[in-house]
Amino acid sequence: MSHQDAIANATKYFDSGAFRAELARRVAMPTESQGGGKLDVLRAYLTEEIVPAVEKLGFTTRIFDNPSAAHGPFLIAERHEADALPTVLTYGHGDVVFGHAEQWRKGLDPWQVIVEGDRWYGRGTADNKGQHTINIAALEQVMAARGGKLGFNCKILIEMGEEAGSPGLRAFAAAQTKALAADVLIGSDGPRLSAGRPTVFLGSRGAMNFEMSVDLRAGGHHSGNWGGVLANAGTLLAHAIACLVDARGQILVEALKPQLPAPVRAALADITLTQDRNDPVIDPDWGEPGLTPAEKVYGWNALEVLAFVTGTPEAPVNAIPPTAKATMQLRFVVGTDPNTILPAVRAHLDTHGLQRVTVKPARMETFTATRLDPNDPWVGWALASIAKTTGKKPALLPNLGGSLPNDVFADILGMPTVWVPHSYPSCSQHAPDEHLLAPVAREALQIMAGLFYDLGEDGSRIVKERSK
């Protein structure tokens, strides 16, 4: 049996309707994690769907309570074929964001897979039920092509709280380092660069949310009586924002500007941000001057104003506002230490005479930036396998523009990380009308079947090459 046999098996599985049926069962489970209170549904997704699917492939399974007791559990599944074989860890999450059924277009239901042309609508189709369903199915098709063997050892981690910020995941990984140990992570989450181009990314940008606020006095005062002699909280906060980032989105705090390493710049030279008809138009002059759009998104830091309020915007009055608050976000790449972000902001504000502006972390966990070296042997191997399967040159992104808990694998578990996403930028994840594109899903099954087959052929060689 061969690489092509594995791909043929995956294609037949998709075309038979089996993949769609499996995905529909999983989408029908309302595994919302953000609001809490659905621990029974979150656990049932693992016990009723994932455990039976992987146990029939010879995996042993264990479900663990979350160290953060109010959040969903974790599943570790393992298939061990031989001590001398390499071990791959694959990851996904079975929880989803709120369904918000009332916001979906007429005729759609977040808890049903509804097909319209190439689009398969339903909450979780893209993020992440469709993606880990593809990967588990690909493992099954490789085993069929190899006479019941994978040719490598495999571990699967499924969490049920990613959409709530992965609470407890880091503590869990630190406590289960032996159970999760592997030679490489091959995971799937997030979007491709575009629907038509297979993509590999090697990490993710970090994200830190922080609040800046001004609290001057109790209550507002009439602007006719006091305007010109009382400090305005909104004005002070507007100047604070403006001294951090200019009118074209360029970061003005030198300590928050990263370096752009040569291998990262070289990888991004091949990347063009594509524009779907539903995407916003890129502002060409926004962000760091001298960088391409791809370098701005995947190789640089971005400082955003997420919210800004002063006074009563819904019903303005003639009063000088006493308070103002803004929520800021820094998306950052490797090289920016999250521990230095707030001190750098504080020092910069002080330098500009804005001591009355306070700075503190927002109520959100910080995601650490991660990035595997683009020259790592696993990277070239994955790109070659995908090209062999599809006949296309895959896009290589040094890191995802968004954030996901890749630091768990790269930093806590200490393994190289290769991500092969199966969605696309306009999939409406986290929004009404989320959908998976059938042609992308079909190709993704072929890609993963080829990748896992090739891992059985080449994995030991790659492990030896990295150890030199």
Strand-helix topology:
Elements: H1 3-15, H2 18-27, H3 39-55, E1 60-64, E2 74-79, E3 87-93, E4 114-116, E5 119-121, H4 129-145, E6 153-159, H5 169-175, H6 177-180, E7 184-187, E8 199-201, E9 203-204, E10 206-215, E11 221-222, H7 223-226, H8 233-244, H9 262-268, H10 293-298, E12 302-310, E13 319-320, E14 323-332, H11 341-351, E15 358-361, E16 370-371, H12 377-390, E17 395-397, H13 406-412, E18 417-419, E19 435-437, H14 438-467
Parallel strand pairs: 3-6, 3-7, 7-18, 8-17
Antiparallel strand pairs: 1-2, 2-6, 4-5, 5-19, 9-16, 10-14, 10-15, 11-13, 12-14
Query: What is the overall number of helices?
Result: 14
The CATH C-level class name of the largest domain: Alpha Beta
**CATH homologous superfamily of the largest domain - what is it?**
Zn peptidases
Distance, first to last CA? 31 Å
Question: Which spans of ≥5 residues are poorly predicted at pLDDT below 50?
Answer: none
Report Rg: 24 Å
Helix content: 25-40%
Q: Which percent band covers the strand fraction?
A: 15-25%
Fold and architecture overview:
It is a single chain. The chain has 468 residues and is of the alpha+beta class. The protein folds into 2 domains: 301 residues, Zn peptidases (Aminopeptidase), CATH 3.40.630.10; 113 residues, Alpha-Beta Plaits (2-Layer Sandwich). 34% of the residues lie in helices and 19% in strands. It has 14 helices and 19 strands. The strands form 6 sheets. The chain has a 6-stranded mixed β-sheet, sandwiched between helices. The chain has a 4-stranded antiparallel β-sheet with strand order 12-14-10-15, covered by helices on one side. Strands 4-5-19 form a 3-stranded antiparallel β-sheet. It starts with a helix and ends with a helix.
